[in-house]
Amino acid sequence: MRDGEQTPGVSLTPEKKLRISRQLDKLGVDAIEAGFTAASEGEMEAIKLITKEGLRAEVFSFARGVKSDIDAVIDSGANAVFLVIPASDLHLQHKLKKTREDVLSLTEDCTRYAKDHGLIVELGAEDATRSDPAFLRKMIGTGVSAGADIVSPCDTVGILTPEKAYAFFSDLIKDFPEVPFSAHCHDDFGMAVANSVAALKAGVKEVHATMNGLGERAGNAALEEIVVALKLLYNIETSVKLDLLYDTSMLVSRLAGIPVQPNKAITGENAFVHESGIHTHAIVSEPLTYEPIPPEVAGRTRRLAAGKHAGSRGLRAALNEMGINPNEEQLKQIISRVKTLGDKGKRVTDADLQAIAETIMGLPKLRSINLEELTVVTGDRVTPTASVRLNLSGKILIEAATGIGPVDAAMNAIRKAVQRLSR
Ligand code: MN
């Protein structure tokens, strides 16, 4: 969560971080890097809140190689620290402005200090994949003799390839057979997931990952992709409950305000949608033909989409799912209408398909709730406020609400009205 939150434009409140942590714990991850305690009061508050939850997962806080950062982790009550110290000359010279000797003593002092205060220490060697291998080994040796519990030589700028990742970690494990390693991969070349899997194959004990692959620049390794690949391509079980991946992805996307790209593996909206007529035809008779991942494994459902590529079988199946059963002639007309819309460049949604079918088949239109009135007040010195009047088959519901903007206020008012209804 710490690296995921480093996505440009993302900033999570302590309450949001708590909600995400609860969900990640439910999902079954072993550890949550919940934030960076020394960064702000909000971060400190968040980690305190999360620590108090008594989650099954270990709660980590990030810290730099600075004593005050480690003090903040101790104060927060977190039981573990991800202590990150630069390893490459590039970072030493241009960021830290310290010598290699400085870095070694920093590694020793900070690790020992954190251990003396009872923390689990995961020592991160930043930019390790661009560091001098001999110096990296000195740094790891220093950290381990000072008590580091696990070492994460980070691929900070994502320059590994699967072959290099395998060699990089195999060599380290050969040199430090007693040390548990973890992989921290970034996705600058789109290889973070493949590199993480290669690192596991080389023998690392842990991989760092974020939901939806969030993170700075191109992001980090996507948790959902790693665990589904392990299960279905490598036949390896993890503690992660795959059927909770989609809910977790949506929660993180919503709270972080970062939409998931539609064609994203596992969690993208289109990942289990079939539109092409040739595909839907085959899918309807045998899902395996075009579905390497059974949707339910990842908490998803298959959807056959309308659209100009859809064939009659696919459209009929999509309509049947909505409880609409057109005859052959009606289906022909529906298909022709869908294709005309598609050729005009319009995306045909399920709602469009339903409307087209209802028109052609002369079905009564189902409209359970009518928005009869919507008033919104907004400005630079006013709290955005909205009032709505809904008509539910004759039953009138009037509600008002405020929000962080006019749309939010309107949504809140509608939500309040609908909630009253469900009570
Ligand atoms: Mn990172």
Please explain how this structure is put together.
This protein is α/β, with parallel strands linked by helices. It has 3 domains: 2-256, Aldolase class I (TIM Barrel, Alpha-Beta Barrel); 273-361, no CATH class; 369-422, Double Stranded RNA Binding Domain. The protein is built from 16 helices and 12 strands. The chain has helices at residues 2-5, 14-27, 41-52, 67-76, 89-96, 100-116, 133-145, 162-175, 192-202, 223-233, 245-256, 277-285, 312-321, 328-343, 350-361, 406-422; strands at 31-35, 58-64, 80-86, 120-126, 150-153, 182-184, 206-208, 273-274, 303-304, 369-377, 385-392, 395-402. The chain has a 5-stranded parallel beta sheet. Strands 10-11-12 form a 3-stranded antiparallel beta sheet. Helix 7 (133-145) links the parallel strand 4 (120-126) and strand 5 (150-153). Helix 2 (14-27) runs parallel beside helix 3 and helix 12 packs across helix 13 (312-321). The longest helix is centred in the N-terminal third of the chain and has 17 residues, at 100-116. The protein is globular, with a radius of gyration of 26 Å. The two termini are 35 Å apart. The mean pLDDT is 93. Bound molecules: manganese (II) ion. Residues 3, 156, 184, 186 line the site of manganese (II) ion (MN).
